[in-house]
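B., you asked whether I could sanity-check this one before it goes into the benchmark set. Here's the sequence:
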Amino acid sequence: MKRVKIYFILIILLISLIYATNITSMPDSLILFQGETLNLNTALGIEVKEKNENAYQTTLVSSGAIEEDDFIGQMNIELELLGLIPVKEVSVNVIPRTTVIPVGSSIGLKLYTNGVLVVGMSEIENIESNKLKPYQNSGIKEGDLIVCINEKEITTTAELVEQVNSSKGENLNIKYVRNGEISVANIKPAKVSENEYKLGLWVRDAAAGVGTISFYEPSTQGFAALGHGILDIDTEELLSIATGEVVTTDILSITKGEKGKPGEMKGSIVNQTTIGEISKNTEFGIYGKLTNLAALGISKENELEVALREEIQLGPAKILCNLEGNTKKEYDIEIEKIYKNNNANNKSMLIKVTDQTLLEKTGGIIQGMSGSPIIQNGKFVGAITHVLVNDPTKGYGVFGDIMIKQLREVN
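And here's what the prediction gave me:
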């Protein structure tokens, strides 16, 4: 009998955990296109109600699908257990459908971190030939952002070096950020020469690369690029940025992709023209404002409506990209799978390159093509994000509606 009770308690705890996980995984706020279906994937027994001023209107039981064809603006919905117990409120902002101009131009990206990023640590030898680790027991780790030393804001590696050298070996009060939280450490720099002191930390304040602009949205003057975020090469974490620049680029070479070995497009960003500002680096791409449309050949004539994911179909589509000079071309692809309910990452569609010209030149999808816009039935449906290492003819794309929602959170 006791064993039955234990099993019963375990089952209750397991069910409670499932419901708690389901509820906490729901976002506090969402952006929705006008006419778009929202799938909340609620657990059995959880009802979703629209929260009005005077009453609750049940809009859904269980499945989580809400579709408002005419509504634009903000609504609040509440999740209730068995229609009785409120468990979570979600704010839904319904925005009008929009149009964008697919770009497909290769660009250079320069990103500057919000502080200086710790990318490594090493033992150092002081002026007396002793081996030291000044950072030891400070709490600072790789991936942390140093933002302040002795109450002075730090934005570049040069500023950090200046503060460390001016310390004359005295303890430094260092503020750093990890996972959005500020912490404080104290480190005593080691003297390595007559006027030079070190912490034993390797830091960086900038990153650069080459990618493709996906689209320009005329109504906000905003742009989206890459379809995925830029990770720090050392920490492999999403780079936290303060500012950034978009510049023109010259394509220097293309390495064809092979099975097990992704191809690559290399470009130069030295002595190039600045054409925009970067304001956000997210899992779903780079976002900001364009200031020089002429440099990218952006024309109002190429404006297309952004497709809802329900409008995307399996079958033929096009991608737009430039692989040499400033000439952009359309290439044939097939959309093989659509993951309509996926909002968790940028792998929304599985695509396959079918264009023989592109296959002969690149072998399929290569690094640098990330962000190339995908067009189907006269609508912008998304952008390339990844290549499959074992089959470079295939890769993933992110939904256009996700990119627009990310952009609207910026502008």
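One thing to flag: The first strand starts at residue 29 and ends at 33. Otherwise nothing jumped out at me.
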